[in-house]
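Question (not urgent): is this output format expected?
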Amino acid sequence: MKTAIVSDTFPPDINGVAMTLERLAAGLIARGHEVEVIHPGLNESGGTGFSDGFREVCVPGFPLPRYPFARLGLPRPVFLKRRWAQWRPEALYVATEGMLGISAMHAAHSLGIPVVSGYHTHFPQYLSGYRLGLLQPVLVRYLRRLHNATRCTLVPTEETRRQLAARGFRNLEILERGVDTDLFHPVRRDWALRRHWGAGPADLVMLYVGRLAAEKNLAPVFESWETARRQTPGTKLVIVGDGPQRAEWEARHPGARFTGFLTGLDLAAAYASSDLLLFPSLTETFGNVLLEAMASGVVTVSHHLAASRRFVEPGINGYAACQESGDAFQRQVFRALRERRRWPQTAEAACCTVRPLSWERITESFAGHLHRAATGPGLPLAA
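Got this back:
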């Protein structure tokens, strides 16, 4: 089957959407599909290359103001229509809802190519972090119209499906996320890395992994660490990631260690060499970071949303705050610290929970959705 994937983000970008799309593309190739990924890469000349068996097409794009870690592709309807008239995909997967994605949908509709969309990011919830909350209704209407013009929209959890259905989104299907349990594993614990962080064998290392941006709700991370180290001075905080707020947090908390983005074995070692993951985001559609930490044998504290609600049993394989507040999150952090003697059992339970979540199973489900879109009856399109 021929499949085209269009996205504003793809590796070498470091984020959950880019990683997920790379996994899905590689998984389709392993199943015998022909795959083309179109994204605004570093090569903006429209050149084509091959990576891990799939074709990459880089198109022009631009970085977001004050947010150089994210890029938006420019609309390319004529280019895509000409391209797909020659290499016609049997299904198109639009992973992001920007100008590039819209132009891809127009090109596909004009050629009669069925379109499946993905809801990877809660952009309406991001607006509050940037003092743009009044624009939420406008953005929801825009996203609803876009997604309802596709054969189906893939969402990562039942929770997201219910939220979107209540807002008028139709044809919603669940496509969960996987985790590489060979890469993210407790055996990656590195005592030399802990010494590099300034942590002794008995010291507690708290970890945050993700973008350093307003939508990630970072304040509870630093508040929890500052309170913990007043009680236990040897407590360390390691921040893995980067973003527009990095300089601000580094200046306010010089005792924390900021590593920047990490990938592959370096990221796996950072997970396994820490003790407690702090994951305070309130805007996740899923949260790959949580599964990676659980697979690494790390005790986690999160809000009971998205992947946390799906996979964390509070007090059994992790800790989760049921109220969406910084105080509720901190209470779970200190509950975890009080129960530190139980962490080996908690970590083992977390590993057992995520061990069956192979990307092979997720890709099989993804391929099934594409096949049904390609072979099923067409659906009326929104205006």
